[in-house]
Amino acid sequence: MTDSTADTPTPSLQDDLRRLEDIVRRLESEDVDLDAALSLFEDGVARLRSARERLADAETKVRRVIEQADGTLELADLDE
Length: 80
What we know:
Elements: H1 4-7, H2 13-28, H3 34-70
Helix pairs in contact: 2-3
């Protein structure tokens, strides 16, 4: 038996955000039954976690790049 998740490409952050928007639209519609709504909610939570992890990873990489370009070991906040 093969692991199908190993062959499935990881969706990009933009893919996750688009899917989250779609999930919100579908959950806001009045024609979603309870089972479908629960499934959409679970998918949304998983996509949100994935997006947050990617953003945290990107923040770490940007901080690292700032440190390397500056030549110092000082950690600068990204919002400065």
